[in-house]
Amino acid sequence: MASVGLRLLIAGGVLALLFHRIPAGEVWAVLRSARPELVSLGIGITVLNELLIAHRLRLLTAAHHLEASTRGILSINLATRFYALGLPGGNALGMALRIHRIVRGSGRYADVVVCVLLDRLATTGAMTLFGLVFALLDHHPVPIMIPAVLSGATLVLATGYIVVLWRPGWSFIAPIWRRLERRLPSRITALRQSTRRVEHPLALTLAAWSLSMVVHVLGVTTFWIVARAIGVEVSALALAWIRSTALLAATLPVTIAGLGVREGILVALLVGLGVPDSPALAFSLLLFATTTLAMGIVGAVVELVQSRSGRFA
């Protein structure tokens, strides 16, 4: 995993390359033209999405008979947005922080690990499936690698979800668990016991993945609103697969909060659809500010308030 310095170097290098090819003055001019009411609406939808994301994890914890409120999980998730802006680890750090905060002295680490892992697999798997469907429906030319990558990622993530939520009656999964048990016997046994606490796995899966789809619909809506805020004309259909591709790449822990990687991919894909390079880069930067940075700032406020009150969610 890359250190903070290396991640900053990679992010800075990608952004420097972009600004070397695209005049910063033109990008700034586009950003200055942004309609504040639409930017504010985009931030509002992002906050709503954070609430739905917290509720999804709440459904998973409730299925494991864990005490965790949607409000408490929301506070935890916002805190992870803040720490992910500058600390190494990216998504791994976020998952570790969620696990530590949700456990809260109960000692049920295996249950919480399963919940957080299922939550991550559900949201990312639904995202790649969502993007794949719209890439296939889009009448614009879509680079052949996009459907290939999204379909492969969806298959891997869905398989991972099924393996984690394995039930004794699902014989086709048993060999995988037996191999894992030989390598990590005590830990895998604890995880298997945790998954068996879920009384209705199929209903839970349907609820988690359906809620994830709603989250991604709202995410695409935010993309579309931010695009309109600076006059970028791209269909919601195209933005759906562009968003999934960019966010999937941004999960790689090679830069700070995916900065640079996400912008480079967004610019390349938007330019390929005929968007001028300056508005394309401005769009990617405004998205970062509206979603990642804004939620990180909110998370910092939450952490400050909770630290002064001497408690954490």
Automatic annotation (TrEMBL):
Membrane topology value: Multi-pass membrane protein
Q: Where are the transmembrane segments?
A: 82-100, 112-137, 149-177, 198-217, 281-305
Q: What is this protein called?
A: Flippase-like domain-containing protein
Gene Ontology cellular component annotations, sorted alphabetically: plasma membrane
Keyword annotations for this protein?
Cell membrane, Membrane, Transmembrane, Transmembrane helix
Say if the entry is tagged with keyword Membrane.
yes
Q: Which InterPro entries match?
A: L-PG_synthase/AglD (IPR022791)
Q: Name one Pfam family in it.
A: LPG_synthase_TM
Tell me where it resides.
Cell membrane
Task: Please report the organism this UniProt entry assigns to the protein.
Answer: Eiseniibacteriota bacterium
Q: Which NCBIfam families match?
A: flippase-like domain
